[in-house]
Task: structure prediction
Amino acid sequence: MAGICSTAFDLTGRVVITGCSGGGKSALLDELARRGFSIVAEPGRRIVQEQLSKSGNALPWIDMSAFARRAIDMAARDLERVQGDAGWVFFDRGLIDAAAALCAADALPVETLLPPTSPYHKTVFIVPPWLEIFHSDPERRHGFDEAVREYEQLTQVYPAYGHQLVELPKVSIGRRADIVLANLALS
Result:
């Protein structure tokens, strides 16, 4: 893991969208893709889908530590995979989210997992808890209260790694995409 953050990445165009589960991150990423930007799907969703398809145990409601360790590995591979890509790439969560989840599961300080620098753009967009759009599904089984705790943890962890958080308002997906692109001077 340490190598992924110390490798010479072009951080200019590697942007994380993080925040509350069920807060509209994936829909926002879909809108950015529709507008022609490269996106990387959330590691957690991909792991849950894979684990459910083979009756695995690395699921957040069965073994959060195993799930988070897989998410760290997948997020690191995602970064390596897009390293040579030109242009902007938007990540639905990232390495810091996965490390924060593992630290919460195992009661570890996050700095024990990641070096003090981040492999992502300085600006990170965060979606707040939004009860009106939150819903559980077979891949997201936790409730709104847990999603709020996750959001609160992320508001502490990202700034600790030098990121400026831009909280996205509770507006339409199109408007959120406009805000992201305007903040990055891409519109």
